[in-house]
Design brief:
The protein has 85 residues and is mainly alpha-helical. It has a domain at 11-41. The chain has four helices and no strands. The longest helix is centred in the C-terminal third of the chain and has 17 residues, at 68-84.
Length: 85
């Protein structure tokens, strides 16, 4: 089985990988293999295709546009519902 050496691994990335390995109860080596497997098996998504799919879904759902004003209004309404509920 091939061996891979990684040079110049940033300390922060090493720390995150080590924490992730511990949380998954894996060795650091196994965690890196899992991360590499996941990264190389994810489907490649074309952003234009994805945006077109989202636009089609939004048009079928007939949702109002998501604007800054709407976001502020929703946030305010949810905040007032919590204080009265």
């Amino acid at each position: 089985m091939p061996t891979l050496a990684i040079k110049g691994l940033p300390d922060d990335l090493y720390r995150r990988l080590k924490e992730r390995a511990e949380s998954h109860r894996r060795s650091l080596n196994r965690e890196v293999i899992v991360c590499l497997e996941q990264a190389t098996t994810l489907p490649v998504v074309d952003p234009r295709t994805w945006l077109a799919d989202v636009a089609r879904l939004r048009s079928r759902l007939a949702l109002p546009p998501l604007t800054e004003a709407r976001l502020r209004r929703e946030k305010t309404q949810r905040g007032s519902n919590r204080s009265t509920g």
